[in-house]
Amino acid sequence: TLTYPTVMHLQKPIAVGLEPLLSSYRVGLETGDLFFGTINISVYALVYFSCGLPLAPFAADMRNYMSQLRICRQDVPLAFILPTTQLALNLMGKSDDPQDLSRASIKRTQPEFFSENVLLDQKDSSVLYMMYLELFEMYILHASYDKMEAALREIYKLPETRLGGPHIMNYFFTFVDGLVGLRIGRATKKG
Hints:
The protein is mainly α and 191 residues long.
């Protein structure tokens, strides 16, 4: 089930992958295969957000899933779900600063799910994911072109800006690259 939504976006609408991911998460919890379950819910969070669906049900569901993950001591998937949920809360006006997607903001807004182990500081996929979420937030909140361009340049300084193969996160990264690049390009033509 995990392979399906990570490659099916090449031929079908990405939202088709939501239900299989959620079902797989539940199977993982019920059978005790937490690794399988948590990978599926992490990808579910990204796919849901990428579909442009309503944010309030998403934030409520994610809080429920994060509670389950905290009980099971699964900090790694929280590293992907917490920032996505924070972005939803920011865009709904449920945080103290809608433009802040930092560790400190997540710690203030969602203290019951935060731990020092949750958000990794190393140059790995969670850092790249966080940088792209921040860029996506800048786009949605109409940040200045200079700010978005600077953020994009920081991403491109990383040794790797894509994950191997047709990974679902690459879909999101390319989507955000396109949105931001188009906006910067239009601004440059006008200026």
